[in-house]
Here is the input.
Amino acid sequence: MTPPPELQGLSGIVVHDEIVSARAPWLHHVAAGQTLHIVDLEGNQAVDFLIYSSADDAERYSAQDTVAAQSNLFLRAGTVLMSNEGRAMMTILATSVDYHDTIGGACSCESNTLRYGHHTKNQHACVENFLEANLTEGRGKRDIVPNINFFMNVPVEKDGALGIVDGISAPGLTVDLRAEMDVTVVVSNCPQINNPCNGFNPTQVRMIVTA
Here is the structure.
């Protein structure tokens, strides 16, 4: 039997395979040496992403260390995602899109209200997803650090301003990350509907872990 497109070309044994619903959080432990494959099933879906060390979650993904280490704002194949201790956490092995964002941050009820109006205050947001997932392991709001936005397009304009524009993904496109230490991955399958990062229509994604 021919495997579905998102499973074709995967190396190793599939040890976890899960569909994450639109707007939902996700948490999973990925062991050193395992690879996480993120599949944008329907296209144009932003995947907000945090990493914590499974050994000591005071060590976590650091946007500033990652940007400094590669001297570039955007994440591409070969980028090493660094921790606040200056250690490699995960490496982007391959990606179907040119680059990913590490500076746009996560949407929240507060930022929605500021940007889009008070009527958006009660809309679900990425910060709430991160909180929901993290609380299962005892982490709180102070443990949410600047995150990665896979498949999200946040160009830096000539005047230094950031834009949030249409995503650069399409149905079935992927990003593959190898864990360089035992990590806890926390995801918000972004619920934003007020800007084009999800094409104004949040959709499901697929998370596959291979060993």
Remarks:
- The longest strand covers residues 88-95.
- The mean pLDDT is 89.
- The helical segments are 63-70, 109-116, 126-135.
